[in-house]
Every structure is written in C-alpha cells, then in structure tokens.
Amino acid sequence: MKIASLAEVSDKAIIVLVKQRVLGCEWDDETGEVIGVLQYGYDGEHFMALDLKTLTWIAPKLQSFTTKLRWDSEKARIRYNENYLTEICPVWLKKYVTLAKSSLMRTALVTNSLYSQIQSEIQLREEETKHN
C-alpha cells in the first residue's frame, strides 16, 4: 500500500519516524588502536549502543531497555557484530586509507608536473618575445 493511498484511507495525519544506524570503526595509524562503533538512534535520540568491551548493549533510555534484554540474549548476533567491528571493518578501512593516500599523492605529482610544464611554456614564450 502506498503512502498516498494510506492518507486517503485514514483521516489521521501521517507520522514520519526516523531510524538511524551508525556502523563503522576508527583506526589510529600511529598507535594501531581500533575502535568499533555500532549505535542505533530513533528520531534523533540515542536508542542503543553495543559495548565491545562487555559485549552487551547499552540502553540509555528506559524505552530501549526491553530491546536491550532481547538483543543481549542474541549471542550469535553480538559475536557477528564484534567480528565485523574488530576484524573486517579495520581491514577495509586501512585499504581505503591506503588507496586514498596513493590517489592524493598521484594527483599531487600530476599537478606538480603540469605546473612545471606550464612554467616552462611561459618561460619559452617570454624568451621568444624578448628575441622578437
């Protein structure tokens, strides 16, 4: 059923709810420390976050406590998230950082090379103008 048809059927206002998920990791390339992040939000408010040290969910609001108890009992899901956040995510993050650095270096080299060529052209034209 489309939203438009729901609006036609119901005389009540349609309410839009927003669910957010933050999933990823941070990597300190100097210390090698990796911090995984998995958080859920609801309409801009914190709802639930995974604590990787205790492998339990943190429920910052009373409304999320029932969900916390259910999610804490899902050990396979917690282990999957732990593996993703501590093993898989850091590997991909390091690959992307390496690719980005090499891409930026390549761009800088091309830019410097192009700049040098333009400078040479300008100098040649200035010398030709002096001689003519």
Structural class: alpha+beta
Domain unit count: 1
Q: Provide the low-confidence segments as ranges.
A: 1-7
Query: How many alpha or pi helices?
Result: 3
Q: How would you explain this protein's 3D organization?
A:
The protein is an alpha+beta fold and 132 residues long. The chain has one domain: MHC class I-like antigen recognition-like (Murine Class I Major Histocompatibility Complex, H2-DB, Chain A, domain 1, 2-Layer Sandwich), CATH 3.30.500.
Please give the structural blueprint.
Elements: H1 3-9, E1 19-27, E2 34-42, E3 45-51, E4 56-58, H2 65-72, H3 75-131
Antiparallel strand pairs: 1-2, 2-3, 3-4
Give the structure's gist in a few sentences.
This protein has 132 residues and is of the alpha+beta class. It is 55% helix and 21% strand. It is built from three helices and four strands; from the N terminus they run αββββαα.
What structural keywords apply?
132 residues; alpha+beta; Murine Class I Major Histocompatibility Complex, H2-DB, Chain A, domain 1; 3 helices; MHC_I-like_Ag-recog_sf; MHC_I-like_Ag-recog
